[in-house]
Automatic annotation (TrEMBL):
<feature type="domain" description="Glycosyltransferase 2-like">
    <location>
        <begin position="5"/>
        <end position="166"/>
    </location>
</feature>
<dbReference type="InterPro" id="IPR050834">
    <property type="entry name" value="Glycosyltransf_2"/>
</dbReference>
<dbReference type="InterPro" id="IPR029044">
    <property type="entry name" value="Nucleotide-diphossugar_trans"/>
</dbReference>
<dbReference type="GO" id="GO:0016740">
    <property type="term" value="F:transferase activity"/>
</dbReference>
<dbReference type="Pfam" id="PF00535">
    <property type="entry name" value="Glycos_transf_2"/>
</dbReference>
<keyword id="KW-0808">Transferase</keyword>
<protein>
    <submittedName>
        <fullName>Glycosyltransferase family 2 protein</fullName>
    </submittedName>
</protein>
<dbReference type="InterPro" id="IPR001173">
    <property type="entry name" value="Glyco_trans_2-like"/>
</dbReference>
Amino acid sequence: MTSVSIVIPTWNESRRVLDCLRNATTQTVQAHEIIVVDNNSTDNTRSIVQNFIDSHPGTNVVLTQQTAAQGLIPTRNFGLDLATGDIVARFDADCMIKPNWVEAVTLFFDSHPHIAGITGPVCYYDMPLPPVGQFFDGLVREKQYSADGMPLLFGSNMAMRREAWEAIRPVVCDDVEDVFHEDIDCSLHLFEQGFKTQYCTAMVTGASARRMGTKHDSFKNYMKRFQTTFDAHPGHTRDGYPERTLLRLYPLLNSMYHVYGAWCSIFKIDTAERLWSSYRKRVHLN
């Protein structure tokens, strides 16, 4: 069976990394390895991860550090370079993968040998009505988040064959100025090398919508990264402009994020932990 390595870059993620690891290690099919790459955290992220490893010795979680440079891209690259599985996957430390995520990724690659990279829907656990949000996210991601007729990989929910990563590794952009969307950059380099990507509806990740909670100018600047990344890679055809949709919806999404967050705080609801708890119980009961 195809083996899946998971890479989780971290920087000051003490609030969510434990939930992330719990989800990553309670899978219907276990990952080959789960590589947590810490990038000079100043909180207790590393100690949380190490304590988890010590108390769960059979879960194939590995903690390592990337200290040479600050940033997501060098940390991501460091982890993907260490991965030994047939498939290298990555998501963020505040992501909660669905309990059948590794199984879904494995089955997809086994049945689609011509596909090099996949991405899937995201369910935003800190927004109201997460299933509804997942539905609309899927609409945007399938219809607009694509280029050259293929879906762009999304950093919170992506996997690719290790040979594809090794092929693009020498050419992926370092983005020292931090103005790109690194997942789009990675996707465009895959397309340039002749690799194909596809959307996999079965690989579902729960992610934070905390970007929606930022101030308008910050959010607008973040949305500019879409076009900046494409401008740095001429010759690709954009199939949609998701940033335009998100900017139009920003006032509503920002209000929903803050109101829902306040409501959950009052009633002490841990939305991330609640997301897949009932699903995990059903899986283990069966």
